[in-house]
Amino acid sequence: MNLGNLVLINDKREAVQPSLFLFEYGNLNSTMIGSFPEDYRKPQLRLPGSGGASDRAASCERTIIIMSHEKRRFKERLSYLTSPGYLDGSPDARQRAGLLGQGPYRVITTRAILGFDEATHRMKLLATMPGETVKSVQENTGFELLVDDHAYPYDPPTPEELCLIREEIDPQGYFIGRKGSPQNRMNCRASPYTSVQD
């Protein structure tokens, strides 16, 4: 399942973007680790590449980035630009570069929900996932996050939402890290209000 291929079309063109490395202005790197351009042909590590992610980031009205939240993945310095976010964060940087759309809208991680400051385009903490705090999220981010004045703890998923996530959205466990089980499928089908067994 390649979540990057899921383009949502409603009143706006929106794209879901997976990411390996993310920078404070929403720029993504999924191409290489090493110095560019010197190490491009023989990088320290070759990553999967764009696979159309750059086109989605450049042309969709908004993008929603999903990723695991680890300090090593949230980088202060951009080593390679695979998919553009707000570039250097300066006013109208996307427009000057000829990019369409508003740019990144949200970053949904295993620790938090993040957005971007309207004036500076720096990443901003909006909500913490269950078991996380502002401090724990910041400690696992490689640059200083802005914190929204109304940051809140995100509610854990309901039993109905767990069924939907585990059995319909991600039954193979690509993102949640575990496969749905036959027992869970039976529980989910029996009643939308049945608690999912772990």
UniProtKB/TrEMBL annotation:
Swiss-Prot/TrEMBL keywords: Transferase
InterPro entries per the UniProt record, alphabetical: CoA_trans_fam_I, NagB/RpiA_transferase-like
One MF annotation (Gene Ontology) recorded for this entry: CoA-transferase activity
Region Disordered, annotated ranges: 177-198
Listed Pfam families: CoA_trans (PF01144)
Record field: compositional bias (Polar residues): 181-198
Coiled-coil region(s): none
Protein name: 3-ketoacid CoA transferase
Species of origin: Desulforamulus profundi
